[in-house]
Amino acid sequence: MYDGGIYxxxxxxxxxxxxxxxxxxxxxxxxxFTVTMSIPGEDKEAMEKMCTAIGGMVxxxxxxxxxxxxxxxxxxxxxxxxxxxxxxxxxxxxxxITVVMGLARGRGKATSQISMQEMDIINxxxxxVFVLGNFKSCVEAKKHLFEKIKVPxxxxxxxxxxGMEDSCEAVVSGVGRKxxxxxxxxxxxxxxxxxxxxxxxxxxRKRTIEEDPLFxxxxxxxxxxxxxxxxxxxxxxxxxxxxxxxxxxxxxMKENAGEISEMVVYGRKLGDxxxxxxxxxxxxxxxxxxxxxxxxxxxDGNA
Length: 303
Description:
Distance between the termini: 43 Å
Radius of gyration: 20 Å
Number of domains: 3
Structural class: alpha/beta
CATH topology of the largest domain: Rossmann fold
CATH class of the largest domain: Alpha Beta
Number of helices: 11
CATH superfamily of the largest domain: Response regulator
Number of strands: 15
Strand order of the largest sheet: 6-5-7-8-9
Shape: globular
């Protein structure tokens, strides 16, 4: 991730293109410019020199190209915003796009619930971080909130609960409900631990994807869509968000799915090598899930 001024930023973008890299995300605020990029490893040193020469900083962001949901039991003040917002922020610093979400009926050991729509929304992300409370029996009783979630789940709670091995991919204890920001050195170390556990879980998921690779990398679809007029004109922040197995487009599906599915990549229509569906959040976003090589091969064999 490059973080610096807008001055000479065009040289940076040209160099990314020259080395065969991809711009994953770029944000401009007044005179400040942030670019998340993916480049070949052998060009890292040259890129660092370029960033230093134009007055910026560059750092590794291992969660770049992912979108993560940070989920709390409710949006009530005793559940939000601490420490959930601190967790979301530390994941952003590692390159992820994060969304904070509260369940409609997540409060209470005996009454907590999660709806099918809420599960469908969470399953649109690359991973979900569930942040629960301070009581061991309460955390264990709320296991049903995430045990049917299909994407990797990282549980964060005050005590270390028992019996979570089959319900989530990782557990980080020592972070319960609190009424202030996580500012002390020990608390900052705990935030770093959460980020590292999320990285480990997503690294495992990446290796699983590599066993049966996607037909095309999500970044290549992003490049294809960058000149698509509705996306260029979109005023929403980050109108295209990369996922490990696809991307989120913040344009209405009804008006755009037909044209997008007809776009050609590697001699194939996008609709033939990806599943395009409307986001369960609202009707102004859509999700593209890229098929694997074996799925496309099976589809060709059945055609």
